[in-house]
Design goal:
Blueprint lengths: L3 E7 L4 H4 L13 H14 L4 E6 L3 H14 L3 E3 L16 H7 L1 H8 L13 H17 L5 E6 L1 H12 L16 E7 L2 E9 L14
Parallel strand pairs: 1-4, 2-3, 2-4
Antiparallel strand pairs: 1-5, 5-6
Helix pairs in contact: 2-3, 4-5, 6-7
């Protein structure tokens, strides 16, 4: 089977990103900065030979994907399995609130216990399995082609770990920037990292619309 090239893009910024508030699967839209970032990513990818764009159906990812799709003259294909990890009762709370109100749970979360799931949420291992399965399935549909996946920070983290062999419990040392462009290859043997956290398209000031 031919390899598939993947472009993985995290959604643009939201107000809850700024507040360090856990979004999980709550449907939070982009803020003005996030919309600007999405347009910048769209401009950066406008000449790429993308065959299909798949996106989480949550608003922040869907809005980002829509901007990219317009630049590429494609439709966005919804894929709910690309949603962020479900954080259950942590959703809507800040990191500081979780530390103060649920210190024992916060410790297990900080330690990246792969089997720990907040009440009503997913464990890291279940989330990893969900994302690697759907990413491989989507890539397998497009042998020899370039596919864009637009999703969330947790999704990007899982893809990075899958491509580099980093364990779920390994401390994160890589960036997961809003609207960053990440590149991978997929074959039936797994994922390979090509490029990560490209944010050169975000170097201009937010008021600079000259590229659009």
């Amino acid at each position: 089977m031919e390899l598939t090239r993947l472009i993985a893009v995290r959604h643009g910024e939201t107000a809850w990103n700024v507040d360090t508030r856990i979004q999980g699967q709550l449907d939070i839209p982009l803020n003005d900065t996030g919309l600007w970032q999405a347009r910048r990513a769209a401009t950066a990818l406008a000449e790429e030979p993308v065959a299909a764009i798949y996106a989480s159906d949550l608003a922040r990812a869907w809005q980002t994907a829509t901007e990219i799709a317009q630049a590429l003259r494609l439709d966005v294909l919804p894929e709910p399995r690309l949603r962020e990890r479900a954080f259950g009762h942590f959703e809507g709370r800040t990191f500081a609130e979780i530390e103060a109100e649920s210190p024992a749970e916060a410790r297990r979360w900080r330690q990246r216990d792969p089997d720990y799931a907040p009440a009503g949420g997913e464990s890291l291992s279940a989330f990893r399995d969900r994302i690697t399965t759907v990413a491989a399935e989507l890539a397998a549909r497009h042998p020899g082609e370039l596919v864009a996946l637009v999703a969330h920070g947790g999704v990007m983290d899982v893809l990075y770990r899958a491509a580099t062999g980093q364990a779920l419990q390994a401390p994160r040392t890589w960036n997961l920037g809003n609207a960053a462009i990440n590149r991978l290859l997929w074959t039936p043997q797994g994922f390979t990292l090509i490029g990560w956290a490209d944010t050169g398209h975000l170097d201009g000031s937010q008021g600079d619309e000259s590229a659009f």
